[in-house]
Structures are given as C-alpha cells and as structure tokens.
C-alpha cells in the first residue's frame, strides 16, 4: 500500500462526491497487503469503499471514526462469496479474451450469447479458441474492433494511454466529472427514519443494472437495510455472477417494451425512493424515460446512472465492459510495459467495475442527504471510463512492486455461512467498521426472475 497515493485518491474521491475543496474526513487504515498491479488497485479499493461508508456516515450524522481494512477491501474486489463443497463457476466464455491481430491486440467480450453471435457474424464460427485466433491474425485491430461493434458485439483494440488521450472518446471523458450530479425539482419531504443500525430500512431501491458495477452498488445499499428490487428483461441470464451480486436483493423480470411491463415499471417507480440504472446512454430515453419523465413519475427521485464509455463523445452509446475499457484507455498496455511482455496485462481484478459500484452507492447516499436538506430530487451519472481516467493518473513505476495480497484466510470470512439456491458459501467480513452501523444482509442471494415485480408490504420486509 502506498500511503501517498491512498491519501491523494481519498481526497479526489471525496471532492468528487461533495463538489467542494473541503478536506476529507480522516480514515483509520489497517491491512497493508495489496494486489500486485501496475496501478494502485488496492488503494482504489480502499478509498472507493471508504467513500460509500463515509457517505452513509454523513447521511445519518455518525461522527464516529471510519476504520477501513485495505486487504479486505481488495478481497471484496475479487469475490464476496466462496462456494463450499462445489467448484466455482467459470467467469468467461471460452472465446472471450485477448487476440493478436496483424498490427496489435484486440479483446473480444463474448459472455452474453448475443454478443458471441455478433462476433461470429464477423469472424465466423470456430471449433475452438485456437482456430478463432488464427482468423483474427489476418485483421487490422481497429478495423476488427469497428466491425464487431457494428455487428452489435463487444470488442476493444489495445491502445496506449497516449492514443486514448488523442482519441475523441478519451478527450470527451477527460472533460467529464467523476460524479456528475445535479439537484432536480422538489418533491415531498422524505419519510426515512434512518436508524443508525439499519440506516436504509424502509428505503426502496429499484435496480436496473447488470453484470458488476451497478449490482455492487445496490448490494452495498442492501447491506445497509434497503429493500432492493432488481429488474431484468425476460431471458437475461448472468450464470457466472448471479450468486455473487444478488446478495440481499429480490430479483424480478419486466419487459419495458411491452404495455404491461411499462405499466408495472411505472407503478414500481412511483413507489421507489431510488433508481439505479446501467443502460447505455440513450437506451432509457429511447424507451420514453428521460430524466424529466422519471422525476414526474416520482417527484424527489434519486436517479443514479452508469455507463461504460462516458456520457459524451462518439462512444457514449457503445456497449462496454470493464475489461474492454482497460484495453482501450491504456491500462492493459501499461500493464504490458510494467511486466516487460508483448501481450496486454489487465488489472488483477475488475477494479473499474467494483470501484465505480461503490462510487454509485456513495452518490445514492449523497443524493439522500441532499434530499433531506432541500426536499429536492437528485441525479448523478458515472462511467467506467471516467473511473479509469482517475486510476490512470497514478501508475506505479516499473521498479515498484506491491507486497502481494496472498491467499484468502479463514479470519477474512464470517463465521456464519450463506445458504442459498446454489448451496453453501462463505462470505467475506465487512471491509470497514463504522461504530453503530454494521454492513450485513438479511437475504440470501436469489436467482434472477425468482420474485414478483412488486414491493413488499412492511410486514414482509426483513
């Protein structure tokens, strides 16, 4: 752990949340082990989790000192749950990964079936990864990147940081705020009781996010007592992540392109306190739900949104994931240089996803604080690419080597196991301690689509 970098990141994150130059509250840090990377991933884990924790402390006026365990924070960027007596699920489709092109490297993201089909429309079907790699070698990296994107797939060519800074999208992202936020039209004063032990008890969070970043945010809010209802479209599956990111939530399905689905969504929204969504920039707008419409449907709504590539620029509506952003913005290229090899070297974890998830949670909690103060609505926007821009400002030198995190130890985990649809799992201990305000979940993980798309009555909440 680098104390100087930790302090600088903490200051930038705090000022990004508060839009002010006031110094951040002090942190009490423990756990010096760090993930080995060309970038300060453990420092980012520590400070992004601290920001979410400090945001809830500010919401409930808890002035107790915040303790953050850096090693545990790093582990939360890996896996919160460890399956017991069963193998872990595979995180990647067999064809996902980095491929050598004629003039460099390109990453294909094929985890979703329709993204794999889009790739195959460009490159054809192959029996194995080696056969696909042979085909890719005949392509120019930027030409193939664009061809896969035009087909509806997901790909990113390896770029240096300098190339990204000269790219129109990189330039657009550099001008965006880390957490763009604004007050919205007034709504009725909130009726939240905000008990210190479960600050978000009675707060309803409508979750329209997928994969990692958004679900990490809503999982954190559920750990503070929020009632989180996740909504997915019919047929959407995330088998490699489902158990990990549905902790504390109920999960239902709605088709927002159908009349009945829209009607039910608007009922749910009208009874919500918070909406967190991770659609591409114009997707919700194209369904008829722009920021103004959302506020009309729920006056005083806290509306926090995420996308991959930023909210301005030519790629604002491009499909994207953490691993693709790392390739495009120079992070994977810097890792390659740091290790002295030829192939891209990404971060050791999906750090952009996880860090942005905790920043999303902090934005929600800041929105709640603002609504308490002003009875207004609140909107915030974040992106993986902007988080990448922040991290890219803090590369380790080639001769810097973090000590290494080491293997997960029994003392890192809670004594009680988690029992769910998938079986038994061990759960990491909370990565921070805020006296009087624990982080804990009252619901086990649940399969997507396993609940009805409605809010629970007060008597049914746990």
Descriptive account of the structure:
With 462 residues, this protein is α/β, with parallel strands linked by helices. It is built from 17 helices and 16 strands. Strand 4 and strand 5 form a beta hairpin. Helix 2 crosses helix 3, helix 14 packs across helix 17 and helix 16 packs across helix 17. The two termini are 38 Å apart.
Low-pLDDT ranges: none
Q: What is the residue-averaged pLDDT?
A: 95
- Morphology call: globular
**Helix/strand/pairing category:** alpha/beta
What is the tally of helical segments? 17
Largest sheet, in brief, is:
7 strands, mixed
Distance between the termini: 38 Å
Number of beta-strand segments: 16
Helical coverage, percent range: 25-40%
Instruction: Give the DSSP E fraction (strand runs of 2 or more residues).
Output: 15-25%
Question: Radius of gyration in whole Å, from Cα?
Answer: 21 Å
Describe the strand arrangement of the main beta sheet, using strand numbers.
7-13-12-11-8-9-10
Quick structural gist:
By secondary structure, the chain is of the alpha/beta class.
Question: Which features does this protein show?
Answer:
alpha/beta; 16% strand; 7-stranded mixed β-sheet; 462 residues; 3-stranded mixed β-sheet
Outline the fold blueprint.
Blueprint: H1 3-18, E1 27-30, H2 41-59, E2 66-69, H3 70-76, E3 81-83, E4 97-101, E5 104-108, H4 113-123, H5 129-136, H6 141-150, E6 155-157, H7 161-166, H8 168-174, E7 180-186, E8 204-208, H9 213-223, E9 227-232, H10 242-245, E10 249-253, H11 259-270, E11 274-277, H12 283-286, H13 291-297, E12 302-307, H14 322-329, H15 331-339, H16 351-374, E13 376-383, H17 384-392, E14 418-420, E15 423-427, E16 432-433
């Amino acid at each position: 752990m680098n104390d100087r970098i930790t302090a600088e990141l903490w200051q930038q994150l705090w000022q990004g949340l508060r839009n002010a130059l006031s110094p951040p509250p002090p942190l009490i840090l423990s756990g010096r082990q760090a993930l080995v990377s060309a970038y300060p991933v453990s420092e980012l884990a520590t400070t992004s989790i601290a920001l979410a924790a400090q945001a809830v402390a500010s919401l409930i006026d808890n002035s107790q000192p915040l303790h953050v365990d850096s090693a545990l924070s790093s582990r939360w960027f890996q896996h919160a749950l460890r399956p017991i007596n069963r193998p872990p699920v595979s995180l990647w489709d067999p064809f996902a990964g980095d491929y050598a092109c004629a003039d460099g490297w390109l990453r294909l993201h094929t985890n979703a079936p329709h993204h794999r089909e889009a790739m195959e429309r460009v490159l054809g079907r192959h029996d194995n990864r080696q056969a696909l790699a042979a085909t890719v070698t005949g392509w120019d990296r930027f030409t193939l990147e664009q061809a896969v994107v035009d087909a509806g797939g997901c790909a990113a060519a390896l770029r240096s940081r300098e190339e990204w800074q000269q790219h129109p999208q990189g330039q657009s992202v550099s001008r965006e705020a880390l957490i763009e936020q604004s007050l919205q039209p007034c709504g009725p004063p909130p009726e939240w009781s905000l008990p210190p032990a479960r600050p978000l008890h009675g707060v309803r969070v409508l979750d329209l996010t997928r994969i990692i970043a958004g679900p990490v945010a809503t999982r954190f809010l559920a750990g503070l007592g929020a009632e989180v209802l996740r909504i997915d479209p019919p047929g959407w599956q995330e088998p490699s992540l489902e158990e990990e990111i549905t902790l504390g939530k109920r999960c239902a399905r709605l088709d927002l392109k159908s009349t009945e689905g829209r009607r039910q969504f608007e009922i749910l929204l009208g009874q919500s306190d918070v909406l967190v969504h991770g659609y591409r920039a114009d997707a919700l707008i194209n369904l008829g739900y722009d920021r103004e419409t959302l506020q009309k449907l729920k006056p005083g709504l806290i509306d926090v949104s995420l996308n991959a590539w930023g909210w301005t620029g030519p790629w604002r509506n491009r499909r994207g994931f953490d691993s693709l952003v790392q390739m495009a913005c120079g992070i994977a290229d810097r890792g390659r240089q740091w290790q002295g090899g030829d192939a891209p070297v990404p971060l050791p974890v999906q750090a952009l996803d996880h860090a942005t998830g905790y920043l999303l949670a902090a934005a929600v909690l800041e929105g709640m604080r603002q609504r308490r103060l002003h009875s207004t609505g609140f909107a915030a926007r974040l992106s993986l690419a902007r988080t990448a821009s922040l991290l890219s400002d803090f590369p380790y030198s080639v001769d810097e080597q973090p000590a290494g995190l080491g293997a997960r130890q029994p003392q890192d985990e809670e004594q009680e196991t988690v029992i769910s649809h998938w079986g038994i799992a061990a759960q990491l201990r909370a990565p921070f301690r805020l006296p009087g305000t624990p982080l804990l979940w009252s619901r086990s993980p649940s399969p997507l689509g396993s609940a009805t798309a409605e809010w629970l009555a007060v008597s049914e909440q746990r």
